[in-house]
Design brief:
Layout: E1 7-12, H1 18-26, E2 30-33, H2 43-50, E3 54-58, H3 64-73, E4 77-81, H4 84-92, E5 97-100, H5 106-120
Parallel strand pairs: 1-2, 1-3, 3-5, 4-5
Helix pairs in contact: 1-5, 2-3, 4-5
Length: 122
Amino acid sequence: MSEKKVLVVIGHRMGKGQAVARGVEKAGGTAIVIPGMAADMKLGDVMHENNADLGISFCGSGGAGALTAKTKYGYPAKSELRTVEGACTAVEEGCKVVGLGFLDVEELGQRLVETYRKVHGE
């Protein structure tokens, strides 16, 4: 029995997100990094198109992309987060989208996939 590949979409205001994507993949997940500036604003659309398990929005406040995904698609979201622990707690509370300030680090991607699996028993 193999583990489900957790699909994580990453939208970064400045078109980045490669470090967190490496962490997602290190934990055995699959990452989609939305290319280009203002990618955070496309997060909900790309999550919807790909039936993603989780979405990560990065911008200065950590809110715009997460709130847009919540408003447009009804995804449970928590924004304005500043730490890996805060993002993991949001996933434990049932959020599908987390919005953070600029925290493009491998640890975030890895721990979010691990937390998702723990919560969903996968």
